[in-house]
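thread: overnight batch results

M.L. [08:02]
morning all. the overnight job finished for the chain we discussed friday. pasting input first so we're all looking at the same thing
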Amino acid sequence: MERTQPDPAGVPPRPQPGSYGAQVLDLTARILAVDPDQPATDPVLRHALDLAGDIVLHQVPAVARHEIIATAELALPDLTGTDRAEAALRLRTAALSLAAGGPARYGRPADQTQGLVRRMLTRMADHLETVRPDEPITAVGRQALIRATTMDPQHTAALQALVPEITDQVVRREFAAQLREIAGAR
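M.L. [08:03]
and the structure it wrote out:
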């Protein structure tokens, strides 16, 4: 079926099939573009990325799926303070870069890797502040939060080292503040 309208000016073309990570980023961009005037918050981005991953990678083995999602997460551009239209544009550009053999997974500069860790910590804090913020968090809840934030074993290990252990009865909102402090120090 042919499109009746061309892509708007300034919108990068879609990546060619072959790079699953690029396809995940492209679909994430299309999901965000549905409501372009809304802010591109971390929870919204995470939901769009998860949904895109489920759609694009539904027939990919779990082991490969984790690696593809991790590669897509590493290629995420900085979306701080953007609306969803701008975020979609940046994601499409990142998808094209990834499809063309762009940022190598293990060759990323340290500041970009730190940016990813900062985003993961911020995503965790956002979740804690919006879902039952006045309830205490448990050690099991801490583990579940880390697992829900990333599927990559290396990222999980990094978060295990950074996220403080639960020692006292601390409520989720206070724990979120601790995570934001750690994210700010990175």
